[in-house]
Amino acid sequence: MARSGEAAVSAESGRVDPPLSRRDLLRMGLGGAAGLALGGLAFVTPVGKDERGWVWQLDPDLCIQCEGCADNCVLPQSAVRCVHAFDVCGYCKLCFGFFPPGAQTLHEGAENQICPTGAVQRRFVEDPYYEYAIDESLCIGCGRCVKGCNAFGNGSLYLQVRHDICVGCNECSIARSCPAQAFKRVPAERPYLHKGKAGEDA
Q1: How many CB atoms are closer than 10 A to CB 138?
Q2: Coil, strand or helix: which one is 134?
């Protein structure tokens, strides 16, 4: 590549290209940086489909909430996160996806929450209704809230592989170690398995 102010000679044709200006070099440098940034983003946030267009997903009907999703993902924070099917939720005052069984008082203190990271957010709607939402940036995919919701509630909380986070391992380490064999391959065009009529808009 020619430096600013130097002519470039094409090896194939012997043709002399006009000298590159500083503006040309800056444009080329910015274009290359943008290409690298987009390429990096594509690597960090892929859909993760294989050559046949399939991705790994967790079947909520087979999941036993063993907490393996939190421990076996190759990522430091698991790509499996809890999602909420609001059309299934009862908006309970006493939600066992939020409170541990036998909770003495219904307040939002950390000692009174089943989630170890505080990812389940509780918001008053009107007496006696409360809305529960998941802060996915805090969720580690342990499934404790899902287990409580399934045991005592409507089962509106469930786990899913989030494909904006998943790196798309063809040999998913969570699927390989899942004791319930709850992971399956699904079409990349429909990568989420919903609960309820509409489920969470994942």
Answers
A1: 15
A2: strand
Q: Which residues contact 89 (CB under 8 A, 6 or more apart)?
A: 131, 132, 154, 156
Q: What pLDDT score was predicted for residue 27?
A: 44
- Within 8 A by CB and 6+ apart from 100, the residues are 112, 113, 114, 148
Q: Quote the pLDDT of residue 141.
A: 97
User: How far, CA to CA in Å, does 169 sit from each of 50, 96, 124, 149?
Assistant: 9, 33, 40, 30
What DSSP assignment string belongs to 9-76? E-TTT-PEEPPBPHHHHHHHHHHHHHHHHHHHHHHHS-----TTSEEEEE-TTT----SHHHHH-SSS
**How far from chain centre, in Å, is Cα 44?**
12
Q: What gap in Å lies between CA 103 and CA 99, rounded to an integer? A: 6
Least confident residue range of 31-35, 53-57, 116-120: 31-35
Instruction: Reply yes or no on whether the pLDDT at 100 is more than 70.
Output: yes
What angle (nearest 5°) sits at the alpha carbon of residue 48, between those of residues 193 and 190? 30
**Per-residue pLDDT, 199:** 40
> Rounded distance, CA 66 to CA 157, Å?
15
Per-residue pLDDT of 149-189, as tens digits, reads 998 888 999 999 999 999 998 889 999 999 999 999 999 99
Task: Report the C-alpha gap between 181 and 33 in whole angstroms.
Answer: 43
